[in-house]
Amino acid sequence: MKTIYEGKTKDIRQEDGKTYFYFKDDVTGKDGVFDPGENQVGLSIEGSGRACIAMSKYFFEKFEADKIPTHYISADVDNRLMEIKPAKVFGKGLEVICRFKATGSFIRRYGKYAKDGDDLNRYVEFTLKDDERQDPLINEDALVLLGILKEGEYDRIKELTRSISQVIYDDLKARGLEMYDIKLEFGRLEGSDEVVLIDEVSGGNMRVYKGDEYIEPLRLSEMIVGK
Amino acid sequence: MKTIYEGKTKDIRQEDGKTYFYFKDDVTGKDGVFDPGENQVGLSIEGSGRACIAMSKYFFEKFEADKIPTHYISADVDNRLMEIKPAKVFGKGLEVICRFKATGSFIRRYGKYAKDGDDLNRYVEFTLKDDERQDPLINEDALVLLGILKEGEYDRIKELTRSISQVIYDDLKARGLEMYDIKLEFGRLEGSDEVVLIDEVSGGNMRVYKGDEYIEPLRLSEMIVGK
């Protein structure tokens, strides 16, 4: 296999015309503390790669059953390899956040109007992946103006984000867990330009609580797919 | 006259059932330097109140001729009093920015995709007035979710912003000046809830250049309405 891209937590590999994510045991964080919101690789945790691919496999197969378009083909958890359909990210990378309850950057921005835990009814917002500029918020007009999205893609991505987030929310709810927010990534499939969910869906993408207790990503993965 | 509100650069006064802005000679700035982007009152400049009301009168009367709805009734420049129709701001205050060319916070946010001076084709964005949180950007869904705008008001305000900004842009263009961006405020008229342009329209609201030279607000006012 040939590594064609080295990422912070995953590499992209190719072999025989097929494309794969290889999940590494590196996680983002700062000062030795795991923090999915951080943009730097902070430390290695044995088993974190396996946890991420196992949880991603679980959810991508759920989306498949629900006919939600994604880049997922299959996953080999033991070898930490996920086969994916090649897709292009929007611009230099776009993140889409779905919020069920107010917390984090929503409060930092809109604390004059909302408090922690307020119901946000699956509010969706878009941010640019840009470490240097702290992943700035961006509206539909700017996304189109800067050539990042085409007309109509904003609403399509918003609709997909709500459906996907609801599937995950309901799954966690049935386990007595509550998801406050989740961060997703989308891209255009090579060839067709169809908008699909890309990247991974693991503990690091979401903020989940059991009552007042925050469930950290690896523990969440354990609760869903075991060790 | 009774002062019912004391603002940074203007007071609101009432007499005989009529409402007025009283333009003060205070301007926002920092360390003794006039900076319309600053949120603190920095210094007093003799004649600044008169310059602001004279320029506002000039533009509000232009908008009136163009049938653009505003809160303006009349202005007494010598006494620095502008009679206005009472209106309510959106939420705790909302600012609407129209950008013809990229500069300032647009570049600070989207510098990965745009450079200073890029054409932005009257792109419109909304920010909350919130000194403590550096006037955060906000999208349509959040404005509706937080009860700041009602359905439909976002598009109405965007359309008004583009028309108003174009009137000002064209006026300045005819004088050999180029407006890069402008910040406007809107509100709902008391009684009817009609969306109208409120506040003032003066040099501090806009970034104007003559070639490569930035024209500071008081000089701009002088170029338009004289001393």
UniProtKB/TrEMBL annotation, chains A, B:
- Catalyzed chemical reaction(s): 5-amino-1-(5-phospho-D-ribosyl)imidazole-4-carboxylate + L-aspartate + ATP = (2S)-2-[5-amino-1-(5-phospho-beta-D-ribosyl)imidazole-4-carboxamido]succinate + ADP + phosphate + 2 H(+)
- Tell me where on the tree of life, at the top rank, the source sits: Bacteria
**Keywords linked to the UniProt accession:** ATP-binding, Ligase, Nucleotide-binding, Purine biosynthesis
**EC numbers, comma separated:** 6.3.2.6
Question: Is Glycoprotein tagged as a keyword?
Answer: no
- Family per record: Belongs to the SAICAR synthetase family.
- Protein name (record): Phosphoribosylaminoimidazole-succinocarboxamide synthase
Q: Which gene encodes it?
A: purC
